[in-house]
Specification:
It is a single chain. α3 runs parallel beside α4. An eight-stranded mixed β-sheet has the order 3-2-1-4-5-6-7-8, with helices on both faces. It has a single domain, classed as NAD(P)-binding Rossmann-like Domain (Rossmann fold), CATH 3.40.50. Helix content is about 40%, strand content about 15%. The chain starts with 7 loop residues before the first strand and ends in a 7-residue tail after the last helix. Bound molecules: NADP nicotinamide-adenine-dinucleotide phosphate. NADP nicotinamide-adenine-dinucleotide phosphate binds next to α1.
Length: about 290
């Protein structure tokens, strides 16, 4: 009898919240799980917790700070070294800031962390992913993309317009536009790309939100989903055989939905793709 090797997933933002719960769930199902983490202490604590809870030894970490393109490149190189095969990438890490902050690369913090770096990471890992017979990328977006309005394609650093929560919603719109374009360019090569809203989940995420939203979420806390519940739609898109045929789609929780018009605009998605490649230096296999 032959034993097949476990499927391998890389998850960003798995030191907390939805990403950590998704990592634990996939580890429990026998997957080899790599977590990309910026903070070694939190990475170690997460590994210990997941190993203890799931009794899996197939959980490792890779150092990666999504607020630095150099760090993303180094982290991706480490993944390629550590993981001879890679089946799924879950681009989950995210943050919200009410103050405008710049990264070491001179980009707005949320835009770089939530979108640019994930696009760069995807490009760097794509050749390895495409060696899998069931390659997937799951981009964790948010229903708040609905509040973004038209994508500010000429103001990717938010120099002309800023608003306490609005820039975050734009980054989540970017996650959907990126997924659409990724799907168009890579589906024929064998990649299934998805974007997903995981629900409103009780995580560390709320800590840098504008005060009004923080208070509202604190009041609503008993109604929020647990990270485990929040991870379920993400894990489903990563692992369910039935979902592969939905490649390219946006999911609101477990339901495939057509996003609003500003998230399906092909011309904007193409311009964002080009701008992202220029900013990050991402290169893709020619289609
Ligand atoms: N919670 C919700 O209600 C909700 C709703 C819709 C969508 N989402 C989306 O779900 C995703 C996960 O959020 P969450 O709610 O689980 O939040 P969370 O508990 O705050 O987790 C965020 C994760 O991202 C990581 N991260 C942040 N900045 C990073 C950077 N520069 N480099 C590397 N990792 C970084 C954090 O690492 P550290 O541990 O080092 O901080 C943490 O592991 C996000 O994309 C968010 O937009 C959340």
């Amino acid at each position: 009898m032959t034993t097949s090797s476990p499927r391998t997933v890389l998850i960003t933002g798995a030191t907390s919240g939805i990403g950590q719960a998704a990592a634990a769930s996939l580890a429990e199902s026998g997957w080899r799980v790599l977590i990309a983490a910026r903070n070694p202490r939190r990475a170690q604590a997460t590994l210990s917790q997941i190993r203890r809870e799931t009794r899996s030894e197939l959980v490792e970490s890779v150092s990666m700070d999504l607020a630095s393109f150099d760090s993303v490149r180094e982290g991706a190189a480490a993944v390629l070294e550590q993981a001879p095969s890679l089946d799924v990438l879950i681009n989950n890490a995210g943050l919200t800031n009410s103050e405008r902050q710049l990264t070491v690369d001179g980009h707005e913090m949320m835009m770089q962390t939530n979108h640019f770096s994930h696009a760069l990471l995807t490009s760097l890992l794509l050749p390895r992913l495409l060696e899998s017979d069931d390659a997937r990328v799951v981009n964790v977006s948010s229903r708040t993309y609905e509040q973004a309005g038209d994508f500010p394609i000429d103001d990717l650093r938010f120099e002309r317009r800023w608003g306490a929560f609005w820039p975050y919603t734009v980054t989540k719109l970017a996650n959907i536009l990126f997924t659409n374009e990724l799907h168009r360019r890579t589906h024929e090569h064998g990649l299934a790309a998805f974007s997903v809203h995981p629900g409103v989940v009780n995580t560390n995420f709320q800590q840098n939100m504008p005060i009004g939203l923080r208070v509202a979420l604190k009041i609503a806390r008993p109604l929020l989903k647990t990270p485990k519940r929040g991870a379920e739609p993400v894990v489903e898109l990563a692992a369910s055989a039935a979902r592969r045929s939905d490649a390219g789609a946006y999911f609101d929780l477990h339901k495939r939905v057509v996003p609003q018009a500003h998230a399906t605009d092909r011309a904007v998605a193409e311009r964002l793709w080009e701008a992202t490649n220029e900013i990050t230096g991402a290169e893709w296999p020619s289609s």
